[in-house]
Amino acid sequence: MAKDNKTAVSVFLNGLITENPTFVQLLGMCPTLAVTTSLQNGLGMGLSATAVLICSNFIISLLRKIIPDKVRIAAYIVIIAAFVTLIQMCLNAFLPDLASSLGLFIPLIVVNCIILARAESFASKNSPFMSAVDGLGMGLGFTGALCIISAIREFLGAGTIWGVTIYGTHIQPASIMIMAPGGFIILGLLVGVINYIVSKKKGA
């Protein structure tokens, strides 16, 4: 049991830090750059993807010995699409403003390379429990990255955090930061800083 717990912790931390899907693997760049104009959007998108990751990883792992190898990708997409549909229905019912803000990017979770990559590389080869842990770690790693990028872009581009004004009218926000170029700039700077820190630790 202790060994299993240690393994589960390492799998969780792998997605959260070591192989963070955004800052390390550079996966899911489309929603990362598109929806991170506000912290609400980043958190909503991240948690939606996390829920899909956990559920789809768990079910795919359960069915991994039943799904024929020739149709595994198609089967994965059907399973993922089912959970994405459920998430979208829940958002429309309980958080309509967030659903409207995220728009097409919720349905596009179906083809998010993070989801498909974990299904193919991890869930199809490991137990349901470990697959769920992997989904949780990767999902929270993705959510954390989106929240960091969103908070910086919202603060610099709109002068707010979670919709609350941080600085008054005497400072003009840099609106470019909530536009496409701002997303690339912030992402590039964060990836550069993280790579620098990692290289320093390896050299130490």
Report what the structure shows.
By secondary structure, the chain is an all-alpha fold. The chain is 70% helix and 2% strand. The protein is built from eight helices and two strands, in the order H-H-H-H-H-H-H-E-E-H. Strand 1 and strand 2 form a beta hairpin. Helix 1 packs parallel to helix 7 (128-158) and helix 3 crosses helix 4. The protein is globular and about 65 Å long. The chain starts with a helix and ends with a helix.
Radius of gyration: 18 Å
Based on DSSP secondary structure assignment, what is the total number of beta strands? 2
Structural class: mainly alpha
Low-confidence stretches: none
What is the percentage of strand-forming residues? under 5%
Q: Tell me roughly what share of residues is in helical segments.
A: over 70%
- Helix run count: 8
| Principal-axis shape | globular
Mean pLDDT: 89
Distance separating the two termini: 34 Å
Main sheet record: 2 strands, antiparallel
| Helix and strand element order | HHHHHHHEEH
Which secondary structure elements does this structure contain, and how are they paired or packed?
Layout: H1 2-18, H2 29-34, H3 39-62, H4 72-94, H5 96-102, H6 113-123, H7 128-158, E1 160-161, E2 164-165, H8 180-203
Antiparallel strand pairs: 1-2
Helix pairs in contact: 1-7, 3-4, 3-6, 3-7, 4-5, 4-6, 6-7, 7-8
